[in-house]
Amino acid sequence: MQKVTVIRKIRSELHYLQAHIGELLTLLKDAQLQPCSAVYELPRLTEENIAEHMPTIFPNALFNEQALQRFLHHALDFTLKGDHPGVMARRLPGCLCLSTPHEQELRERVAHVNQLKSEFDAFIQHYAGKNPDQRFELVSQAVPLLIRKAVSRNLLLAPQDAFSLSYSWSHSTSRSAVQPRQYWHEKLDRTLQSKLSDVNASNWEKLIEQEKKALENANDSEYFRTVRPLRITPIVNLKYNRAQNGKFNKTTMIAHSPVIVLNDRPKLSPLKPYTGKRIKDAKVAPVIARLHLYRA
Questions:
Q1: 0.85 exceeded by the pTM?
Q2: CA nearest neighbour of 169 among 51, 277, 246
Q3: Pairing mode of beta strands 94-99, 259-262
Q4: Long-range contact list for 281-288, CB < 8 A, 24+ apart?
Q5: Can you tell me the distance from the alpha carbon of 86 to that of 100, in angstroms, rounded to the nearest whole number?
Q6: What is the rounded distance in angstroms from the CA atom of residue 268 to the CA atom of residue 265?
């Protein structure tokens, strides 16, 4: 598919998706908001926070009508603003409890919006380039300052018969596949080539050479992998379908957006501040700190 065609398709599909989200939000505004609703604003982040071990996070709680209005903005907030890094799309954990006679229609509309989101992201993955840099450049040409991660993440809808909702904080890591030394040498070579036109190309070349030497000197292993710490993430824990014998179902979701609860009044626990340490200190130093590369 030609580049200009892909750009037009991205623009048209995004407009189509936004229209469907807008229709869903109109229906949600017509529902009756229950007084247990709350969302939690998290601190604003910058590029400097990407690798930062945030020692404390203090959410700012908004309740009821303020919570609803904040969600209505969040659901269509796909644009990069200021120095907020696009790789860290804004999060708004919380819960909106709504009473409505149109529950089935709302559930179907949420499912349809989430399907459109998946199709939008799949189109970009398939047609916008073979690697993340190519995709980023093409999407930026189609819709400047678009945060693709914010567009593609699902709206969160609680299962029926939800009776408990609580939060926790996750400090997980992203681990790559284990690869031999030669793979990482080639990766460093590709990284160097991609920066040759940069104004700091000479400094970049020195850094890559240092990293290559570090990889060669790690001769007690032939295999390596990246273990990259992810930023602290709020998690929502849902319990539903409680039976008379006390058994129930449960699910856990990343709380990037408020959970929509329809015609249920679950017991809600507030999102407490995060005051713990993000990750334990690594017992072994990385071979290449920039890549979070460790011996496998």
A1: no
A2: 277
A3: parallel
A4: 286/227, 287/214, 287/215, 287/218, 287/224, 288/184, 288/211, 288/214, 288/215
A5: 35
A6: 9
Please provide residue 97's backbone torsions phi and psi, each rounded to the nearest 5 degrees: -95, 120
Residue 266 has φ and ψ, to the nearest 5°, of -70, 155
Among candidate residues 2, 19, 255, the one with its CA nearest the CA of residue 116 = 19
Separation CA 270–CA 163 (nearest Å): 15
Check if the beta carbon of residue 180 is closer than 8 Å to that of residue 218. no
Cβ atoms within 10 A of the Cβ of 127, count? 16
100-129 residue pLDDT tens: 999 999 999 999 999 999 999 999 999 988
Is residue 236 classed exposed, middle or buried when 0-12, 13-18 and 19+ CB atoms within 10 A define those classes? buried
Sign of torsion over alpha carbons 117, 11, 75, 150: positive
For the record, the structure tokens of 28 come out as 């949600």
